[in-house]
Design brief:
The chain is an alpha+beta fold. Helix content is 18%, strand content 8%. It is built from 3 helices and 2 strands. The protein has a two-stranded antiparallel sheet with strand order 1-2.
């Protein structure tokens, strides 16, 4: 399979706070002024455009995370035995794991 074509890029232009995202190396390096979150950020305008409202200072999490509809918390849990991986194998020495369950080999 041939490698994917990618355009040639030049060296990154020196800029303060630059994370070298690649825009400064593109054919339009001046686009950094429009695209970069570190150069003249306008979070209130962008949040209004995306979420339809500004951050609510009465909601402490929005001060840090920005506007959201609801905040969810996730945690890892062990899968149910036999559903997403082998549970303890049967006593039979000729048992094989097949997707979803143990079978006789």
């Amino acid at each position: 399979m041939p490698a994917a074509w990618t355009p040639a890029v030049g060296p990154a232009r020196p800029r303060g706070l630059c994370t070298d995202c690649g825009i400064s190396r593109s054919a339009e390096p001046k686009a950094c002024g429009r695209a970069c979150q570190f150069i003249r950020p306008d979070y209130p305008r962008l949040e209004l455009q995306v979420h339809g409202r500004a951050r609510d200072p009465a909601r402490p999490d929005e001060v840090f995370f920005g506007p959201f509809r609801r905040m969810l918390r996730a945690s890892l849990a062990a899968p149910a035995p036999g559903r997403n991986g082998p549970a303890s194998p049967p006593a039979s020495p000729n048992a094989c794991w097949r997707p979803g369950r143990w079978m006789r080999c």
